[in-house]
Amino acid sequence: MTGPDVLPPRVRVVIADDSPDLRTILRRLFEHDGRFEVVAEADNGEEVIKRALEQQPDVVLVDLSMPVLSGGDAIPEIREAAPSAKVVVLSGFGFHDLGDAADLRADAFIEKGAGIDEIVRMVAEVVGRVE
Question: Which backbone phi and psi does 70 adopt, to 5 degrees?
């Protein structure tokens, strides 16, 4: 079925951050936006790899500083677990402090200080769903 009344499928997102409050805020904003569906959350690097494998999301939003396995160390395994997913790094660190950020193999980098609405806008941009 096609036509102007048919909405495109929602972008499936996994949110990985060790702050439950930030995950809740991000979940609410993504789901309120209407273009997104949060299919899983994770609070550490090992868990985000499992969720990416299970859910095969369109986007994995991953914090770099997490327990058990850092987000940076999890990214190669996320790429293996969900090869079609875009990986967006969310970090409280300035990226000039990360050294060569390209080595992380992420599709985009967002500083937590960018603001919640800016995070949603940038994730939409990464998946080509800017409206």
Answer: -65, 155
Query: Quick count: other Cβ atoms within 10 Å of Cβ 28?
Result: 12
What are the tokens at 43? 């609070």
d(CA 112, CA 22): 10
**Distance from C-alpha of 57 to C-alpha of 64, rounded to nearest angstrom:** 19
pLDDT, tens only, 65-107: 888 998 889 999 999 999 999 999 987 765 544 444 456 678 8
Give residue for tokens 């990214």: 75
> What six digits make up the tokens of 84?
């079609």
- Indicate the pTM of the whole model: 0.86
- In whole angstroms, what is the distance from residue 61 CA to residue 116 CA? 13
CA end-to-end span of the chain? 21
Alpha-carbon distance of 93 to 127, in angstroms, equals: 23
Q: Which helix (H) or strand (E) holds 131?
A: none
Phi, psi of 49 (to 5 degrees): -65, -45
Spatial separation of the C-alpha atoms in residues 129 and 106, rounded to whole Å: 18
